[in-house]
Amino acid sequence: MPRTDERYFERLGDDFNRFMSCYDVERRIALIRALLPPTAHASRCLEVGCGTGAISAHLVRWVRELVVVDLSLTLSRAVGERLGCQWAEEDACRLRQ
Fold first, then answer.
1. DSSP states of the chain as a string?
2. Chain segment 29-55, per-residue pLDDT in tens
């Protein structure tokens, strides 16, 4: 499905994971874990562009509070509800406080 607008990921829905590389996700998780400070377990974390939550599922175990956002309402809601964390539909270029 060629990307033609900002709702591309919304339309992908359940097919989103087919386009993700397990190798890439695992490398990102390892990098994030290595860069987390020792006090991460007491910290709040904002994940921008959570997608289907492949990385979120790890982050939620490592921090006190996780907030996930994505341009896709469907994806951010699904991840937030599945992991029991705050979620929002947000454009990374226009984040609100």
1. ----STTHHHHHGGGGGGGS-HHHHHHHHHHHHHHS-TTGGG-EEEEES-TTSTTHHHHHHHSSEEEEEES-HHHHHHHHHHHT-EEEE--GGG---
2. 999 999 999 999 999 999 999 989 999
